[in-house]
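User: Please run a holo structure prediction.
Assistant: Happy to. Please share the sequence and the ligand.
User: Here you go; the ligand is S-adenosylmethionine.
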Amino acid sequence: MTLAVRAEHLAERMDDPDCSETMLRRTYERFGLVNRAVACWGRVYRELIRPELAALERAGHAARILDIGCGAGDVLHRLIAAARRDGFAVAGVGIDPDARAIGAARPGPGVHFRRAYSRELVDEGATFDLVVSNHLLHHLGADEFDALLADSARLGERLSVHSDIARGRLAYAAFSLGALPVAPGTFLRVDGLTSIRRSYTPAELAERLPAPWRVERPGRFRLLAVHRPVSPRILP
Ligand SMILES: C[S@@+](CC[C@H](N)C(=O)[O-])C[C@H]1O[C@@H](n2cnc3c(N)ncnc32)[C@H](O)[C@@H]1O
């Protein structure tokens, strides 16, 4: 097994439509725990998202956040909760093409989930202030990756942030051990290790992104693909 190149050919167990429903449900239930431990959204919220929310608030504008490939929705719920704690008016929409993910996602006040691809929202003429995703980039084939970037650049009027793993031996070893306590009865460990093997290094991601997208590093094992429109919507 090598981590020197992306293992694009590997499939995750939870993407198999015939995988165990019980294990899939437990996997969705524990995503929140794992994302909190590894995904650095607290820092992304403080450094990238909160300043945008503040600018929107100063303009008297309630913020709208879209989470693409939201799974069971824990990242979106967490961002909305953080924004509300900071006193911002905010609403969120999570989309995922997998009906099983949308079935596991729980709506809340101002938080909705819908089975859809980002393309459908573009076709509907929808727009959001902020677009996010978590652990989506490594999932996508080359054409899907390009389509996601194009869609999110159109959907996100102020900022798009796609967060994923930075592939590397230390990330693999740390997750291999760290996931042991939460893995039993789930696909978390086996799919997490596959995800690391499918993920990009910072150099690979930088190479893949067209301008004005750029790579940021909110943590040693994390990558962000960040897009700010060249002409962001002017706030009144
Ligand atoms: C590893 S899960 C991550 C779920 C969630 N974002 C999280 O971090 O817990 C990846 C999700 O991406 C979704 N997905 C796969 N291909 C997609 C695509 N082309 N567009 C949007 N979502 C996609 C899958 O259905 C799956 O729910």
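The two ends are 54 Å apart (CA to CA).
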